[in-house]
Structure formats: C-alpha cells, structure tokens
Amino acid sequence: ETGAGHGELRHALHLAESCGEIVHYAYGLKLLGDFRATEAEPGGARDAYGRALAIAEPRGVRPLAAHCKWGIARCARLSANPEEAIRWANLAREDFGRLGLSYWEARVSEELADLASEPAMLPACDAATGRAAS
Questions:
Q1: Which of 9, 24, 75, 82 could make an S-S bridge to 16, C-beta 3.0–4.6 Å?
Q2: DSSP secondary structure letter of residue 133
Q3: Do the Cβ atoms of 112 and 86 come closer than 8 Å?
Q4: Using CA atoms, how far apart are residues 68 and 57, in angstroms rounded to an integer?
C-alpha cells in the first residue's frame, strides 16, 4: 500500500536525520523521489532527487548521485522538458559508465534512445550529446 510505504519512509527519513545519518537520509530522499515520480508528481520528485544529489555529490556517494541524476532526467521527461531530460540522462549515463555499472548505463541509454524517437516532444536533438542537431 502506497500510504503505508510513505509513512514508513517519512519515519525512516526522520530517524536518519535525527541520528545524523546524512547519507542514509539522502538515500531516503532518493526513494521519496522514486515514489513521487511513480505517482506522476515530477515537481516533488525533482525536489527530492535534487536534495539527495546535493548531499551525495560532495560526499562522494557516486552511485547515489548517478541515480539521482537519472531520476531528475525522468522528471524532466514527465514534465515534457526533453532538453533537460537528455542533459540529465547523459550525466547519469556518464556516471554509471565511469563507475562500471553497465546495467544502469544500458538502461539510461535505452531511455535516451526512447527520448530521441519521440519527435512530437523533441526538437532535433542528438541523444549522445544532448545538444540540438545541426
């Protein structure tokens, strides 16, 4: 049940924050972003991913940062912002590649290919670079 999951997540976030477990708090924020994205709340999801990313990057929690970037890309896609979606997806794909996380790198690459094939949403963009095609 979604409601129970949200309640447990709120409790976990409170616990992590009160105990000073900032990285666990960031993982909770990422999960909150996942919940909100699944519920088609891209604004709230984007906020949660962004907050988690702001914690993860300076602490060197690179896998979490890469997942947050991918989450932000998915939020941009839900918000019909293809240029931002491609930019964030490329950042996530590069991070997954540097980390040797080939499964996630391939998943992001598939999503980039899907984005590139949505002509109604996208101006002519190069999926590999995220820049407007000339």
A1: 24
A2: P
A3: yes
A4: 10
Instruction: Say how many C-beta atoms besides its own lie within 10 A of residue 122's C-beta.
Output: 17
- DSSP 8-state code for residue 131: S
Q: Sign of the C-alpha dihedral, residues 110, 58, 6, 85? A: negative
- 123 to 8, 91, 114, 126, 130: CA distances (angstroms): 42, 20, 14, 10, 11
Q: What is the DSSP letter of 123?
A: -
Phi-psi region of 21 (alpha: psi -120 to 50; beta: other; left: phi over 0): beta
pLDDT by 10-residue block (mean), the chain, 134 residues: 72 89 93 89 92 96 97 92 92 96 95 75 46 44
Distances (CA, A) of 122 to 14, 43, 59, 71, 96: 40, 20, 35, 19, 24
pLDDT of residue 92: 97
Compute CA 12 distance to the chain's CA centroid, rounded to the nearest angstrom. Answer: 20
